[in-house]
Amino acid sequence: MNIQALLSEKVSQAMIAAGAPADCEPQVRQSAKVQFGDYQANGMMAVAKRLGMAPRQLAEEVLKHLDLSGIASKVEIAGPGFINLFLDRQWLSQQVDSVTAAPRLGVAAVTPQTIVIDYSAPNVAKEMHVGHVRSTIIGDAAVRTQEFLGHNVIRANHVGDWGTQFGMLIAFLEKQQNEHHEDIALSDLEAFYREAKRTYDEDPVFAERARGYVVKLQGGDEYCRTMWKKLVDITMAQNQIIYDRMNVTLGRKDVMGESLYNDMLPGIVADLKAKGLAVESEGATVVFLDEYKNKDGDPMGVIIQKKDGGYLYTTTDIACAKYRFETLHADRVLYYIDSRQHQHLMQAWTIVRKAGYVPESVSLEHHAFGMMLGKDGKPFKTRAGGTIKLSDLLDEAVERATKLVAEKNPEMPEDELKTLANSVGIGAVKYADLSKSRTTDYIFDWDNMLAFEGNTAPYMQYAYTRVLSVFRKAGIDESGVTGKARIEDEREAALAVRLLQFEETITQVAREGTPHVMCAYLYDLAGLFSGFYEHCPILTAGDEATQQSRLKLALLTAKTLKQGLDTLGIDTVERM
Ligand code: ARG
């Protein structure tokens, strides 16, 4: 049920009948205040101007043609020409009945698109750090949202698995194997990388061997390939543990690392040269872009091949976009990458468009996000100033959540407590990130994210269990809700309208890639349910029909909270 779409359609038909052009925008929005109704049509002002009419006069004409019988109980003109729409309670009741009974909360089927979502993208032989956390969490929520709507989603984990550092890493892996006569666990990837780098800087013989291995790896040498693969496998096996712990839907099959595009690079460079887009400049191959100026005001040069023949991160992203269109047949490509890489992406895509590798009909979207900061407003670090390992962060989250839930539930059996603490702890870390507008930097704060009040995971998870407790107390489950919705009280109406806005919310989230909009919606919904629950007794409703109607609202609230949290990748629990 998409009320906004339904009303937009009706209002725009009436506008056209009143003489407005066919492309007129009714601008139907959810009203900010109850006195303005449930929805408002704000488009009269702009259209009246085009028609050379007074907006109120247009609004009056529109009302003559607007048929909302059975849908709205009142329609009125306000201010300079806003149209306020008040939904009919009987109509709301019917919608609640049909949405509750429908699969997928009555969300209409979409025309499926192929959507490639680029997210997580850690680097090989490096620990995933908090900088990859936002990409992983927000990207996975985008995946779940698009899949729920029925799109064909391709997860693309653009792992950093290629580059000159692999010579050094292979040489160091070999050294370790020779010294320890076994495959090392690489349990501390960060230390491994650091040691490899130190050896490379200090030992010229080692450095020479490392440089040789780069060339061999690029030439397809079997030994180097095997060693390289071992490094990728070990890294991704460790990352998989994190993905599983975080209930992130990425798997090994989703790895589409930089190396995948390596064979395309010489062809791309040759093609860009042939098309006159790339030129030789001081030995390197460069694309000069008029769209970007350097500090002297000249077109910015984007290097796509270095003097020594090596390719760059940008060259790979050019090939990658081409591949996603040509081979994966993407209609839309969403990149969840931090905002510092914005210019890099824009340059790569400008070249992609100029070369005609991806048509304009396919959208390439950078869903950028800010940095994760500590409470002091500086990049999030350990007390000693090191980067925080994601696995340590998750351990701490679960540890803190265990204390919290154990305090609240002293009687709870050990294993149930463990599962609960895990859902609350991991949920808190994820939700804290998802609930903030992604474009800004965000402050990581344990106390805020684990609070049982406010827009937090523990609050939302608790709110869900409260709704379920209604059914426990009534001694029934879903099958016991057989009556019809009958919206009478204003709190019932407010809750019903919000419940019926799930589809427009998820549609917006899918379009803009803004999970915080879903969080805000669910938080508001939970608040409306509390108000309803306090003022509209369910178990002591008096008559059976009222009780059934209220149980139905509770049921739809439970379903909506669960489904909404699920599209965010947040676990729900039955009790807490
Ligand atoms: N591996 C990169 C990093 O750690 C992120 C890759 C993002 N995806 C892309 N297509 N460039 O910064």
TrEMBL record:
The keyword Cytoplasm applies. Keywords: Aminoacyl-tRNA synthetase, ATP-binding, Cytoplasm, Ligase, Nucleotide-binding, Protein biosynthesis. It is an enzyme of class 6 (ligase). Its main location: cytoplasm. It catalyses: tRNA(Arg) + L-arginine + ATP = L-arginyl-tRNA(Arg) + AMP + diphosphate. A motif ('HIGH' region) lies at residues 122-132. SUPFAM superfamilies: Anticodon-binding domain of a subclass of class I aminoacyl-tRNA synthetases (SSF47323), Arginyl-tRNA synthetase (ArgRS), N-terminal 'additional' domain (SSF55190), Nucleotidylyl transferase (SSF52374). One of its GO terms (cellular component) is cytoplasm. The keyword Signal does not apply. Residues 460-576 form the DALR anticodon binding domain. Its EC number is 6.1.1.19. Belongs to the class-I aminoacyl-tRNA synthetase family. PANTHER family: ARGININE--TRNA LIGASE, CYTOPLASMIC (PTHR11956:SF5), ARGINYL-TRNA SYNTHETASE (PTHR11956). This is Arginine--tRNA ligase. It comes from Erwinia typographi. The lineage of its organism: Bacteria, Pseudomonadati, Pseudomonadota, Gammaproteobacteria, Enterobacterales.
